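Researcher: Next entry in the queue.
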Amino acid sequence: MSTEIQDHLRYWQERLRVQDWDVTLRVLRYHEMGEGLLGQCFRNDASRTAEIRLLALEDVSGSVTPPGRDLEVTLVHELLHVLFHGASDETENRIAFEQAIDATARALVELDRGASVLLEGE
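Model: Structure for this entry, 122 residues:
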């Protein structure tokens, strides 16, 4: 696994204030993840531990994922599940919740990248 994604994990845990969770990260191949999955989060609220699984970049294709999707966005999406632990367990509003998490993850990463570009230009 690349050190870049591990760096992203530490960075986003801090930014989302979930650094008190023990989060393990695994990057898996398509046959290990399951069809149509880009990421998964398994968490234990009692022990404040979580395992995040991400689909390996070499297995991400335009047919599976929207253009512009990358591991960082998927990582932030799964970390938001840690942040909102308990709230995502309701099956009745699951689709709306996933859409909100996805939009939030994408916006956070885009804003962060924009801020980085602005800071580099100074």
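Model: The first strand starts at residue 22 and ends at 28.
Researcher: Noted, moving on.
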